[in-house]
# Entry
Amino acid sequence: MTDNLQTLRDDIGFLRELAEVGRSPRLVGGSALIAAGTIYGLASLAHWAVASGLAGSVSPWAFPAIWLGATVAFISAMAALNRTQIDGAAARGSRAIKLAWQAVGWTIFAIFACTQIIAWRAHSMLPLLMLPSIILSLYGLAWMVVAGVSRQAWIWRTAIGAFVAAMAAAFLCQSASVFLIFAAAMACLAVLPGLIMIRQASRGA
# Structure
C-alpha cells in the first residue's frame, strides 16, 4: 500500500512538472539569433556601403560575395555553437520554438535561391528587391509562433516590429537605405531578443 501511495505521489509530481514547463517552455536559439543578426547585419551594412558608393568603385561581384561570405560565416558559427539537446515530453514547447526557426531558416534559403533564379531567367532585378521584406516578414511569422508558445508579451511586440520593418523595407526597396533598415532590423529582431533569451535562460525563466 505504501509503495502504491509513493508511486501515485511520484506520478502527480511528474504531471505537475509537465504542466509547469508546458506553461512556460524554455526559449531556445538565443545564440543562433545573435549569430544570425550580427553576421547578416554586418553583411547588410557592407552591401549598403558598396551600393551607396561609400566603398568606392568595386566589382559587381562584390554583392554576391558579401552574402555568400556571410552565409559561410553563419554556417561555421552554427557548427561551432554548443547545441543543447532537449529531451522529454515536457520540452514540446521548446522543440516547437526550435522547429519554427529551423523552418524559417530553410524557407529563407529556398526563397533566396528562387529569387536568384527568377531574376536570372526574367532578366530583372525586381524579385531581388523583395528579399528584405520577405525575410523580415518570415521573422515576424517565427516570432508569432514563439509568442504563442511562450506567452510572453515582449515577443508579440517583436513580431509586430518585424512586420513594420518589412513594410519599411518595401517602401525603400529601390534605395540603398533599405540595407540600413535591414541591418537595424537584424539588431532589434535577432541580436537583442537573442540576448534577452540567453539572460532568461540563465535565470531559469
